[in-house]
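User: quick one, fold this
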Amino acid sequence: MQWAIAHEIGEHYAHCAFERLGIVPAEVPANSREQIANALAARILLPSELFFVDAIELSWHLVALKRRYSTASNELIARRMLDGEPSIFVTIFDNGKLTTRQANLGHPVHPLSKLEWRCVRESRESE
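Assistant:
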């Protein structure tokens, strides 16, 4: 519910972001407004000034960050980690299926290694 509200606020203020960036909304791809709204929503729920200080304090531990930012989903927190430092990989599985594999390294992300796949299998088996 908090994401939906933050997203609607982002939708409402997306035009301001376009304006500040000097972008004419009619000249951008159709999903640009949605991307701006998502980025604004992420920053409403996980504001940079607080989130990155907390992330460092908590050693970028996802579960600890989720406890502190209970209104944000695990996925949102993981994706927001990509905006900070250090360099990290974020891999997201949904019902055992790999849905996202990203990094903030500035180059393409390599596929999961055999060891990573083994960790995924073992973690699913231990649930």
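User: anything notable?
Assistant: The longest helix spans residues 2-21.
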